[in-house]
Design brief:
By secondary structure, the protein is an alpha/beta fold. The protein contains 15 helices and twelve strands. The strands form three sheets. A seven-stranded mixed beta sheet has the order 2-8-7-6-5-3-4, with helices on both faces. Strands 9-12-11 form a three-stranded antiparallel beta sheet. A two-stranded parallel ribbon has the order 1-10.
């Protein structure tokens, strides 16, 4: 067979996980799996929510529609956009990564501008769609020199991956506004933010002021349901949404109906809202304790956090991937998250969304 080469590689995160599980089986010793981007403090308790479902209805047994269920899109408009977004400009996607891929496919832009430290899958998606990768050093660079990114799609991920850094919201708005003046499109990817905020958060609503913004988000992190593969895509540009809907149609023919009903229940029912609140409270509390432990024990790579300490589910520590693995901790080398691969090989990204007791038990081996 003659095959079109994808020009992509297997995720380093996947490779690390396979290696850690193999070592765990060989040594018969448990590992703390911190290479993944999964909230693992607690599982969200879905029992009270699922018990309300009647699975023998069209809600579950009929195609859900390409754009997604109307009631779910309206619920997202209310929950994330304070009721100010048009649900017709929202699409339900099979996870955040699908929204990212559709965005890259949809635009004629041939270059994507990523933060200096970026999630590796951004670059792999760009390779898949034959788009070049560029990087920018900071939001301040976007604000001061927006013309440098003409004809590029600028990606802003906040809180960040891999560092977990949180930029001031006003800096994000200023950067988007400056780029809009240069007719430069911006993709805002913020799947971790809602772990730490509630319905009063106006971040998404304020993004509605800008015509150049595409928003991708998911429920993998904010409610701990990465296994359900569901997220959403928003853009004010109607042609963008029309074409994105067509790509979604022929890629999925609609996102899993159960996942949509589940998210709708979590956003709108008393039982669902309580389950989300409990999940967020426990998760955010353990993340904060774990980050403080890294800081207090001089494990955090402080040179990457000049303006703030990490907030998201990730943090960068001053130990190599191999060193951590020898101590039964899986991580991903920071060399995977930048174009300067050799420069940062002695630093690693870890997921800090795990039970604090387990985190301290393993990390104490490094102190």
């Amino acid at each position: 067979m003659q095959i079109n080469n994808t020009n992509t590689e297997v995720s380093r995160i996947l490779k690390v996980g396979q290696k850690a599980r193999k070592l765990q089986a060989e040594t018969m010793k448990p590992f703390l799996m911190l290479h993944r981007g999964v909230n693992a403090v607690v599982n969200i308790d879905l029992n009270s929510v699922v018990n309300q479902f009647d699975f023998n209805t069209e809600d579950f047994q009929v195609y859900p529609g390409t754009a997604g269920k109307d009631k779910l899109r309206s619920a997202i408009a209310d929950e994330y956009f304070l009721g100010k977004a048009n649900p017709e400009n929202l699409l339900i996607t099979p996870g955040g990564i699908s929204g990212l891929d559709i965005t890259i496919q949809n635009l004629t832009t041939k270059t994507i501008a990523l933060p200096h430290f970026f999630w590796g899958s951004y670059a792999q998606l760009a390779n898949l769609r034959k788009v070049k990768v560029n990087t920018y050093p900071s939001l301040q660079s976007l604000i001061k020199y927006p013309h440098k990114y003409t004809n590029q799609l600028v990606v802003i991920c906040d809180p960040g991956n891999p560092l977990g850094e949180k930029q001031p919201d006003e800096d994000i708005y200023n950067a988007i506004g400056r780029l809009e003046q240069e007719n430069i499109n911006v993709l805002v990817d913020s799947p971790y933010r809602r772990i730490f905020t509630d319905t009063k958060d106006d971040f998404h609503a304020r993004l509605l002021e800008y015509s150049n913004v595409i928003i991708v988000d998911s429920f993998s992190k904010s409610v701990g349901l990465s296994g359900q593969r569901i997220g959403f895509l928003y853009a004010k540009d109607e042609l963008f949404i029309k074409e994105a809907k067509q790509r979604l149609l022929y890629a999925t023919n609609g996102v899993n109906a159960f996942a949509q009903e589940l998210i709708y229940a979590l956003l709108t029912t008393t039982e669902g809202k309580q389950a989300v609140t409990d999940f967020k409270k426990k998760t955010a509390s353990n993340i904060a304790k774990n980050i403080d432990f890294l800081i207090n024990n001089n494990l955090l790579s402080t040179e990457f956090y000049k303006n703030s300490k990490p907030l998201g589910i990730f943090a960068c520590i001053n130990k190599s991937e191999d060193e951590l693995l020898k101590n039964n901790i899986s991580s991903v080398s920071m060399s995977y998250f930048t174009l300067e691969t050799e420069k940062y090989k002695n630093h690693s990204r870890i997921c800090v969304s795990v039970p604090h007791e387990d985190f301290v038990k393993y990390m104490n081996l490094l102190v």
